[in-house]
Amino acid sequence: MAPAQVPVIEVLNALEIAQELEPAVNHFVGIVFDQVVAPLLRCDGIVDLKTMVEAETATLTPELDPQAPVVPTGDPAILSRPFEHVAAVARFIQAQLFDVFETDGHGQSSSVAKFRGAFRAAWSARAVPLLITAVLDQIPEDRAALDAYLEVVGDEVAGLENTLADCRLASTDDFGIRLADVMSLILPSFTRKRRAGLLRSVQTVLASREQNVVRAQSNPGIAFGPESKNSGAAAANAGSKSGGKEGVEGGDLGIQFPDCLVTVQTQTLLDMLHEIIQRASPSPQPVSQSGSVAIHELRRNVMELDRDPLAIIEAFDSVRDLIRLWHAKTSAQWTIQYEEIHHRLGRLPRLDEALDAQHVESTRRLLRGIMQHFRDLEVAWKSCLPNDVYLRIIGYLLDSCYTALTSRVLAMPTINKSTGNSLRFLLVECSKVNALFHVATASPSKSTPASRSSGTAAPLPAFGAVSAVGGPSALVARHCPKHKRLTELVSFLSLLSRDQATQAMSKFREFSGDELMQLIEHRQF
Asked: Where is this chain compositionally biased, Low complexity type (predicted)?
């Protein structure tokens, strides 16, 4: 009977290279956010709400003492302007970073879907805390001013939340606090004492957000060109990317991509995509060559790449397509090896016959040939597969081999002393596989408090890295669980008497009581 095909889903579960694109997408989102969104929010945006209100109030009331604390007036003309700006930023993001993918036919791309999700998460973590902070910072001391403030800002917050939802952006930060929640916290019925307690609790929450707020307001690792003077080339590029749209709603704010210098993050991203291509298909095949050429072109034009999010998304898609092809080829190769191993096992007669004096030598040669085949696969696959993928594949194949061998032993009607000795010897030979699981290991990286406080992005994990904890024996246990069942079988067959085997049954947890009793009944001690 032909051996069963390896289900494709097993291959996809084992080959997790595609997951390496996720940190790449997150890094790219960080680049876009730092170079595009943060400058827009800094430039006459919600971050400057306090300064704007103070300046407008001082203009309206010239007699105000410059040293005295300024109380917001609740004037809609003052308070609505920053919210209009943030709404325009949101519409700009939708037009330049979301809609353009739909127009260019990338809407169904898994890379684009990951990009959107990561961007929404970044907005929640970085932008929404700024909005919440700005709203809370402006709570007036005067009760009459508070009523006007609540009425105006409540309407503005509701309108902004609707705009964010329409633009597929969140109005909830990564702590689950919505803009509308802020308005519900500062209901007009609370007293001055309750207000003081509220602000203390809010300050505690905002302190835990400090890292995100600092990242959104300033990033010293990135150099920007003049934000107030966008070049004609940048404006033309932004216009072309929006599919011919002329700016966005609220275009009088003049939102465009800011001029910016080439960043280290962009180069790091390209290096990582290139590494993924090399590890996925290191041999000089046309597919990997075309992928390498594409990355080389992006590196050469990195100045334009910084202003062109779509080019990065296309690079993600190229790498994803390459990995998909590599998955298909590896799936076919894995199925071939699975069938080869089980074809060889199928040539074994019943073990009670295969281990008699006449056939034991040929049986030994056959099993040694199977183990040599695994060693040949080790040489061929370690040179081209990421470690984690290699370990999953070799572990699965060994598991299927051990399952077949164990089933053969349990099916033996009789195990005499001579057969038992030969059987133990052969199974011990088959269990010596630690060398197959000896791979380069990498300890998990740990971010330092300094790196967290400075806002520096954590280094990407090594591609295909494997934890160093435990060494080859731990990797065998993790990726080849049936190995323990085989070694327990060898130990059980080494017991010298029926009484000894019966008393030790509870120690062999890989077998059921019925299976162990069957072995005891069939053995000749």
From this structure: 227-240
Total domains present in the chain: 2
Give the SS3 label for residue 104. Answer: coil
End-to-end, the C-alpha distance of the chain in Å comes to: 35
Residue 512: which residues within 8 A CB-CB, separation 6 or more?
none
- Angle at which helices 387-410 and 417-431 cross, to 10°: 170
**Cα gap 331→337, rounded to integer Å:** 10
Write the CB contacts of 482 (distance below 8 Å, at least 6 apart in sequence): 398, 399, 402, 403, 406
Are the beta carbons of 279 and 463 closer than 8 angstroms? yes
Residue 230, in any domain of the structure: no
Domain with 475 in it:
348-522
Instruction: Out of 99-108, 109-118, 252-261, give the one with best mean pLDDT.
Output: 109-118
Q: Where do the DSSP E strands lie in 56-119?
A: none
Per residue in 458-509, pLDDT tens? 443 343 445 545 688 899 998 999 999 999 999 998 888 889 999 999 999 9
In a domain, 458, yes or no: yes
C-alpha distances out from residue 38 to 72, 86, 89, 231, 261, Å:
25, 11, 10, 18, 15
